[in-house]
Design a protein that fits this description.
The protein is of the alpha+beta class. The chain has 2 domains: 144 residues, 2,3-Dihydroxybiphenyl 1,2-Dioxygenase, domain 1; 146 residues, Roll (2,3-Dihydroxybiphenyl 1,2-Dioxygenase, domain 1). The protein contains 6 helices and 17 strands. Helix 4 packs antiparallel against helix 5.
């Protein structure tokens, strides 16, 4: 997930409702290594001599109790194709692997809460785990060595927002402007944006840039290697139902067509496109199981103006 720093003022989200997580149920052993005992996963990148890009979000996993329905939703919506690796399914866009779908048992005593988890590239997963716990976060799934993939773990920040860290064995996917169907952005919704920015600065090695533009839609930009990697948005006080969470965005050709298609496929629209929100080029939906994901129609016009 990548953008030039000049783009960051234009990719923002005002509001998304995300239900609380049943973390202990959904994330137990929620790494692909637990689900792929016989099949070796493909590397994050097949580009020769790929470099590591610390701080970049390089992968995402959907943890869900219904992978079959997720495939039927995301395939037609984004043009993704799928390949099975045991209980772990890899989604690809134009033959580029970009996400995993992991089947977890449906809880017997509570509603399932599927969600997307973004993975940050780090130089040392064990060090990242220590940084997280020292700063008040938690280790949800400890470090694992995943054949063909690298070393990774699933963590939670002090507010409970879930994310992963990974040291790829093949290097990281290079920076490029996302095509339709690719991840194009990710945003953290936080009760304390400054504290959250400082936390992730320690974990991911980011430079934190405060957004001082009038009427801005996010408060801080997390940058590395000269690129903006993510934004941090303070949850409005009146939005009591909004939980701290990471929200990834996929690039689409036409935001209104994609929203309509999501509805046809059984999804729910959480945030509709609005003219005052990035010129109506952004929306947030939930798949049929309830996992939230953002949609962004990219154009050069998004680089203009102060958002």
């Amino acid at each position: 997930m990548k953008t030039n720093l000049t783009l960051t003022r234009n990719r923002r989200l005002r509001r998304v409702i995300v239900p609380p997580l049943a973390v202990a149920v959904l994330l137990w052993c929620a790494l692909p290594g637990c689900a792929t005992k016989t099949a070796q996963l493909p590397p994050l990148t097949t580009t020769p001599h790929s470099a590591w890009l610390p701080g970049k979000f390089v992968w995402a996993d959907l943890v869900t109790d219904d992978v079959a329905t997720a495939r039927k939703f995301y395939g037609p919506l984004f043009g993704w194709t799928f390949r099975d690796y045991g209980k772990y399914v890899i989604a690809a866009n134009d033959e580029r692997p970009l996400a995993g779908l992991l089947q977890r048992p449906r809880p017997k005593d509570r509603e399932a809460k599927p969600r997307w988890i973004g993975y940050i590239s780090v130089p040392d997963v064990e060090r990242a785990e220590g940084t997280v716990t020292n700063a008040g976060g938690r280790i949800l799934v400890p470090l694992q060595n995943v054949p063909g993939r690298g070393r990774q773990a699933v963590l939670a920040d002090p507010e409970g927002a879930v994310f992963g860290v990974i040291k790829s064995s093949s290097g990281d996917p290079e920076d490029f402007l996302a095509d339709p169907g690719d991840w194009i952005w990710i945003q953290l919704l936080s009760r304390d944006a400054r504290r959250a920015a400082d936390f992730y600065q320690a974990v991911g090695g980011y430079e934190v840039v405060e957004n001082t533009v009038t009427n801005h839609l996010s408060d801080y930009v997390l940058t590395s290697e000269g690129y903006a990697r993510a934004t941090v948005r303070a949850i409005p006080e009146e939005s009591a139902r909004v939980r701290p969470t990471w929200l990834p965005f996929v690039r689409v050709n036409n935001i209104y067509d994609s929203v309509a298609r999501a509805r046809e496929l059984g999804g729910e629209v959480l945030v509709v496109p609005k003219p005052g929100l990035l010129g109506g080029k952004v929306a947030v939906i939930a798949d049929p199981s309830g996992a939230a994901i953002g949609l962004l129609e990219w154009s050069d016009d998004l680089m203009k103006g102060g958002h």
